[in-house]
Amino acid sequence: MPSLRSIILVLLVTVTLLGCSTAPPEGLRPVTSFDLDRYLGQWYEIARLDHSFERGMSDVNATYQLDDDGSVKVINRGYDTGRQAWKEAIGRALFVGDRHTGSLKVSFFGPFYGGYHVIALDQENYRWSLVAGPDRDYLWILARDKTLSADIREQLLGQARVLGFATEKLIWVDHQRIDPRE
User: Which residue, 133, 152, 142, is CA-closest to 42?
Assistant: First the structure.
């Protein structure tokens, strides 16, 4: 008979794995006609819903690079205002399905992946994107520049609101510091 400790361990592992969803939230469709080559490069975080792994961060940016094996190297950087130091996390992203659909899974912690779904994109110029995670608690507005025009910002906020995101809880990211790696 398995010990109570073994049962608890199996339950914890199961709950952890179930919490690492890579599917888009119900009712959301990632963009199609997605071109990874155009998406690669640096993006600035304009706004986000709060999470423990980005709490207290300003000047956040993400760089996407194609690796030789076809995966995408993800380099997230930001300034930890509490520690007064730059912080970096490196991860790996893989397409969930078709490479022309903006739906990927990203891992910063070994075998555990979370969803990364581009749900709105400037498909003409690849200057901004709206990204959802595995549920409606994760949302990012990204842009190629540190600022986003008011009309585009309002358009993305309206779209996110209609899709059920708590846009009133968005954190607008400050970009005052110069990243020494830029």
Answer: 142
Largest Cα–Cα separation, the chain: 63
pLDDT of residue 20: 52
Low pLDDT (below 50) residues in the chain: 1, 3-19
CB 59 within 8 A of CB 179: yes
Q: What is residue 12's predicted lDDT score, i.e. its pLDDT?
A: 33
155: Cα separation from own chain's centroid: 19
Amino acid letter at 124? E
Distance from chain centroid for Cα 98: 19
Contact (Cβ atoms closer than 8 angstroms) between residue 116 and residue 96: no
- Please, what is the end-to-end C-alpha distance for the chain in angstroms? 58
Neighbours of 20 (CB within 10 A): 15
Containing 14, the helix (H) or strand (E) segment is: helix 4-18
Please report the pLDDT score of residue 79 as a whole number: 97
Q: What is the dihedral of CA 111, 37, 26, 142, to 10 degrees?
A: 100
pTM: 0.87
